[in-house]
From TrEMBL:
Pfam family, one: AMP-binding_C
Residue ranges annotated for the AMP-binding enzyme C-terminal domain, each copy included: 3-48
InterPro entries: AMP-bd_C (IPR025110), AMP-bd_C_sf (IPR045851)
Lineage: Eukaryota, Metazoa, Ecdysozoa, Arthropoda, Hexapoda
Protein name, per record: AMP-binding enzyme C-terminal domain-containing protein
Amino acid sequence: MAVISVMPGKTVTEQELISLVEKNLPDHCRLRGGVRFIDELPKTITGKIKKKQLQNRFAN
């Protein structure tokens, strides 16, 4: 799964991202879990993405 925050003024669809990954990356990198769009990625005070928070947010 990919969690995406699109830059202001830009647009992209889930299918565009999936096609891009399938075309340019090896099979083990495929987005089998789909694509999720959010307004802003959660970050620490040093600017790192809070991966655990994203995992908890999108856990089944």
